[in-house]
Fold this sequence. Notes:
Strand 1 and strand 2 form a beta hairpin. This protein has a three-stranded antiparallel β-sheet with strand order 2-1-3. Helix 4 (114-126) runs antiparallel to helix 6 (182-189). It is 49% helix and 11% strand. The protein folds into two domains: 22-81, Fe,Mn superoxide dismutase (SOD) domain (Helix Hairpins, Orthogonal Bundle), CATH 1.10.287.990; 86-207, 3-Layer(bab) Sandwich (minor pseudopilin epsh fold), CATH 3.55.40.20. The chain is mainly alpha-helical. This is Superoxide dismutase. Keywords: Metal-binding, Oxidoreductase. Residues 101-201 form the Manganese/iron superoxide dismutase C-terminal domain. It is an enzyme of class 1 (oxidoreductase).
Amino acid sequence: MAIYTLPELPYDYAALEPVINPQIIELHHDKHHAAYVKGANDTLEQLEEARDKDQWGAINGLEKNLAFHLSGHILHSIYWNNMDSPKDGGGGEPLAADGVGELADAITESFGSFAKFKAQLTKASATTQGSGWGVLAYEPVSGRLVVEQVYDHQGNVGVGSVPVLVFDAWEHAFYLQYKNQKVDFIEAMWQVVNWQDVSRRYQAAKASVPLISF
Ligand SMILES: [Fe+2]
């Protein structure tokens, strides 16, 4: 039985034009994201079989596949909701007047200013080697925000940090439209950031009990 299911997009395929064209959104969601959901479910079945048979010869590969596909599913599920059309409020900066003042303050405290944060996340995303993500995450030990440069979906990740804003820097996210100009795609992404969604995720991460303490 499938544990994970592909979530519906919160908008239609053309909603993020001209930043991301409908063909990319359709392929990205219906094919790539769907493959991570299937991969996570298939791997869980294979692990159940290994437990039932007490056969552990493939355990290293199975655990790696689980991390890859599950992280791919989670990051894409966040990614779709992190974006919205500029006409529906996407883009700009988080502002207290829009009810996201705590997030704006946390960004300033953690990075010095919104401009410095934007520069770091843009750089981290645009310079991923191979496939990866730029991620703004809540780090529960310090209670601050950090930018992480994630490889594939699961490498180079700080244990315990909770992603609140993710930029997909895999070629499948932009190549049909931006060709090899990854930095142009990442810079355009700022026009469709849904700060209301980022703020909700930040508040939820902050409210959760940190599982790591000293
Ligand atoms: Fe992707």
